[in-house]
Specification:
Elements lengths: L2 H11 L2 E4 L3 E4 L1 E4 L9 E5 L10 H11 L9 E7 L8 H13 L5 E5 L4 H9 L8 E6 L18 E2 L5 E10 L5 E14 L4 E6 L5 E5 L11 E3 L5 H9 L5 H7 L14 E7 L5 E7 L5
Helix pairs in contact: 3-4
Length: 292
């Protein structure tokens, strides 16, 4: 079965989306859109569902519908675009899909992907403020790529929101040997959604499985220049296996939330990739102008 058809079928079988604030959206009549260039699916949602701007008349109509006193006329049409199967959702995909959804009169656009470019994530969050269609990113579990394993999963664990890493880029007072400016990155934390309890909790920077720094991010390819694995007991085993002595500060640094001093590259931009508890890769960028 082709990728888009497979994702559409999964969306039909799991028509409940978990969005910010531990709220749910129930999709009705999920189907492929007619004459679409980029959009992958469309569906109806209640007029008062999260992300919708319901009028007073629509809210009254919806209440009457639920009481069985009126026909279902308050529902609004929303659109979906599926990101690539083996690549990150790009800024161009979000921009083009949002334009098409806005022109066709959809009330909301949901971008579903396995990973997303940080610039695309920023565009999604600011799209409505710039006069475009309200847009939400929905994280799809990587288990969708594993065929029959999907049969053993709860529907609530298939599509969910995920938080963005919170980082700071700071200038150091000390300079390099050649007098160049030195910087450091600190991972403050990450909001993690637990699909088993339907709750969101904040994890500090030293309580994530792994995070990586690219000190010269070009916006296309993430190159690891520093790597950290805060939540792991593997360091004790590694120290025993090496059968030698190292300064304790080395291990604390590798399991920490603060990078080693570094110089910015010619891109004047850094990127931090965090791996959360579900294996999702979440990337955030910071430019030179954002350094504190």
């Amino acid at each position: 079965m082709p990728y888009v058809e497979r994702m559409l079928e999964v969306l039909r079988r799991s028509p409940v989306l978990r969005v910010e604030g531990n709220k749910t959206i129930t999709l009705k009549n999920v189907r492929p859109p007619a004459k679409s260039l980029l959009l992958s699916a469309e569906a109806f949602v209640d007029a008062t569902a999260p992300g919708q701007n319901a009028t007073l008349e629509e809210a009254i109509q919806e209440a009457a519908e639920k009481d069985g006193l009126a026909l279902p006329l308050s529902q609004k049409m929303v659109a979906f675009v599926f990101g690539p199967e083996n690549a990150a959702v790009s800024q161009r995909l979000v921009d083009d899909a949002a334009r098409e959804a806005h022109l066709k009169g959809y009330s909301h656009l949901y971008v579903i992907g396995f990973q997303i470019d940080p610039h695309a994530r920023t565009l999604i969050e600011k799209n409505a403020d710039m006069g475009g269609i309200p847009t939400t990113y929905v994280q799809a579990t990587h288990d969708l790529m594993m065929g029959d394993l999907l049969k053993n999963m709860r529907s609530s664990q298939i599509f969910s929101v995920c938080g963005m890493p919170e980082v700071t880029l700071g200038k150091l007072k000390t300079k390099g040997k050649d007098g160049s400016l030195q910087y450091e990155v600190k991972l403050l934390g990450l909001d993690v959604f637990d699909p088993s309890t339907m709750e969101t909790e904040h994890r500090s920077g030293n309580d994530v499985p792994a995070w990586f720094l690219d000190s010269n991010y070009n916006g296309r390819c993430f190159h690891v220049s520093q790597a950290f694995f805060p939540r792991t007991s593997a360091w004790d085993s590694l120290k025993k296996a090496l059968k030698t002595e190292y300064e304790e500060e080395v291990w604390e640094h590798l399991a920490g939330d603060t990078s080693a001093p570094f110089e910015l590259g010619d891109q004047n931009q850094i990127a931090v990739k965090v791996i959360d508890d579900r294996g999702n890769e979440l990337i955030v960028t910071k430019s030179l102008g954002e350094a504190e």
